[in-house]
Design goal:
By secondary structure, this protein is an alpha/beta fold. Helix content is 32%, strand content 28%. It has a single domain, classed as 3-Layer(aba) Sandwich (Rossmann fold), CATH 3.40.50.300. Strand 4 and strand 5 (69-77) form a beta hairpin.
Length: 192
């Protein structure tokens, strides 16, 4: 969407998508913890009593001077459950880039593939090309014993040529690297 507010400010909308319980909300919480409250808003979250995201999570980051612009980055999580299809479509509307959070556990491969197929359908319905939108895959939960390595997961979810990072969001590993990569992909794509 790349909304310019003042001449020196750029607003980006990035959505974190993936199967339920893959670590999307954990990513936002860890980003706020690492970047600090002086450069982030509070996390707006509506959870169920099982600590699962009901609608979406939201946080805004303030980053000074990339390409001479001050960035305001709006990060959203999209609930992974099929039940919240309408909310998923609303949150994905107008995104500049996305992070697909893969649950690396062996038993979640099918859930990852189903979520990726669902994401492609939502984007197509919104007139957004999955191939052309800036995106980063984050292979989360690499700290778990049942986690598969990214190189094993990629062909199983048809993501061989996609940019990605191994991660353990709960431990803060790969979280900022993923965020930096998607921001650079968006700003590079729009500077051409």
């Amino acid at each position: 969407m790349l909304i310019k507010a003042p001449a020196d400010e750029l607003h980006l909308k990035i959505a974190y998508f993936g199967p339920g319980m893959s670590g999307k909300t954990t990513n936002l919480k860890k980003i706020r913890e690492i970047i600090g409250p002086s450069n982030t808003s509070e996390i707006t979250s509506i959870d169920t009593h099982y600590n699962r995201t009901l609608f979406f999570d939201f946080i805004q980051l303030k980053i000074d001077s990339i390409y001479g612009l001050n960035l305001r980055i709006n990060l959203y999580t999209v609930p992974g459950q099929e039940l919240y299809k309408a909310i998923q479509e609303i949150v994905l509307n107008g995104i500049d880039g996305l992070v697909f959070v893969v649950d690396s556990q062996r038993e979640r491969i099918g859930d990852n593939l189903a979520a990726l197929i669902q994401l492609k359908k939502f984007l197509a319905n919104a007139g957004i090309s999955f191939l052309h939108i800036p995106k980063v895959f984050q292979y989360n939960k690499q700290d778990l014993a049942t986690a598969l390595k990214p190189e094993v997961i990629k062909p199983k979810i048809m993501a061989e040529n996609m940019s990605g990072f191994p991660a353990s969001a709960i431990n803060g590993i790969g979280v900022i690297e993923t965020l930096k990569e998607i921001i650079l992909m968006i700003t590079d794509a729009n500077s051409k």
